[in-house]
Specification:
The protein has a nine-stranded mixed beta sheet with strand order 2-1-17-16-14-3-12-13-15. It has a six-stranded antiparallel beta barrel with strand order 5-6-7-10-9-8. Strands 4-11 form a two-stranded parallel ribbon. It starts with 26 loop residues before the first strand and ends with a strand. Helix 6 crosses helix 7 (343-355). It is an alpha/beta fold. The chain has seven helices and 17 strands. Helix content is 19%, strand content 26%. The model is unreliable at 274-280 and 282-293 (pLDDT under 50).
Length: 370
């Protein structure tokens, strides 16, 4: 398929610059995949589309204050470090802004020479495009809340008054450069109400890199090399998900990051085979009935990098329902939702949302694909 197949025009005024209050007041376009019919609701109506025995899968990643001011050593030329991913010990994959930054460049990290952190970084490797590997002289995480700023997507130009509004209420695990935005709509009251309704809750962790916002530049999308992200699904959560599906419940992925985690875990399940795991586990019990579940594949616990690139034609193995925000043109995320709901249906729904003045992108409204 060609990149132009995933293009659409969005008036700039439709890009949400600030979060709506309260969180669950956002609008929700509901797209019925079997018929193409749409409904215009609010997010707080989500329980109307869920059934007792369904399971929500939430991404618990937490956005870190990953934008760090810096100065070149010696000389003091202005620079900036944007943390993308922890590589182990004191090494990080980053983007470094500033003039004449190359391997061997040393940087003092902090707002000024009086910051008192004595934190330094050295560029030790060039990576693809503008990414680099730096090594800090000591662990950087203890200093992030003091010297770091929350990185917002480039299309958000209005400063965020409350940084917690770019975190989900259930965020637990530090490591993300961007929020899993489908989860921003949830309130504690909503999650409690869903549990009372008989909805199960499972969690995963996928740390999001800023590449998630990058447009695909190759004309043939099959030639695009997607970014890798760390995906984690614990044995306990895999068991919750598999038990739910065995009982006839649906797997409801909250966001494209949960989708990629679940689908990666299902693919690994098929690759490893039941002989690799405990034969008494729920996962392996499901292998025996896989053909009776319309191609659904059980998930297994994972803790690995995933570069799963989902485009139209992909056969979904784990996810039945998806909640997601509205995505950028020509993006891998638009391709993913098009694979789930159909490209033409998805683009028609986007056009309808634009005409109805929905708020788009990270701080905007959401779309429920059922």
């Amino acid at each position: 398929m060609h990149i132009s197949d995933f293009d659409y025009h969005l008036p700039p005024e439709r890009i949400a610059q600030t979060p709506i209050e309260p969180r669950d007041a956002s609008r929700m376009l509901v797209l019925h995949r079997d018929s193409g019919a749409t409904e215009h609701r609010q997010f707080r109506d989500l329980p109307d589309y869920l059934r007792p025995g369904d399971v929500l899968v939430l991404n618990q990643t937490r956005v870190i204050p990953a934008r760090l001011p810096a100065r070149k050593l010696p000389g003091g030329g202005a620079a900036e470090i944007l943390l993308l991913r922890h590589l182990g010990d004191t090494r990080w994959l980053v983007i470094v802004g500033g003039k004449r930054i190359k391997v061997g460049t040393r940087l003092a990290v902090g707002p000024d020479t009086e910051s008192g952190t004595n934190l330094e970084a050295e560029v030790i490797e060039d990576r693809e495009e503008n990414q680099r590997v730096v090594i800090f002289n000591k662990p950087v995480r203890p200093y992030l809340d003091t010297i770091g700023e929350t990185p917002l997507p480039p299309y958000i130009t209005t400063p965020l008054e409350d940084s917690s509004r770019y975190q989900t209420i259930y965020a637990q695990h530090d490591g993300s450069a961007a929020a899993p935005t489908a989860g921003l709509h949830f309130t504690g009251e909503m999650l409690l109400a869903l549990k009372r309704q008989g909805i199960e809750i499972a969690t995963c962790t996928l740390h999001i890199g800023l590449d998630t916002f990058a447009p695909v530049r190759e004309e043939n999308i099959a030639e695009h090399k997607i970014h890798t992200e760390r995906a984690i699904l614990t044995p306990q959560d895999a068991q919750i998900i598999n038990k739910t599906r065995l009982k006839g419940g649906r797997i409801v992925a909250i966001g494209t990051t949960a989708v990629r985690t679940l689908e990666t875990a299902a693919i690994r399940s098929a690759a490893y085979g039941s002989e690799q795991n405990d034969p008494n586990s729920v996962q392996n019990t499901l292998h025996a009935v896989d053909n009776t579940l319309c191609g659904w594949r059980p998930v297994i616990a994972i803790d690995e990098d995933t570069d799963l690139f989902i485009t139209p034609g992909y056969r979904f193995r784990a996810v039945d329902v998806m909640l997601t925000n509205f995505h950028l043109p020509r993006s891998t995320l638009l391709m993913l939702v098009s694979a789930f709901a159909g490209r033409e249906q998805m683009l028609r729904a986007y056009d309808e949302a634009i005409q109805a003045k929905y708020r788009f992108y990270s701080l905007g409204d959401c779309c429920l694909l059922v």
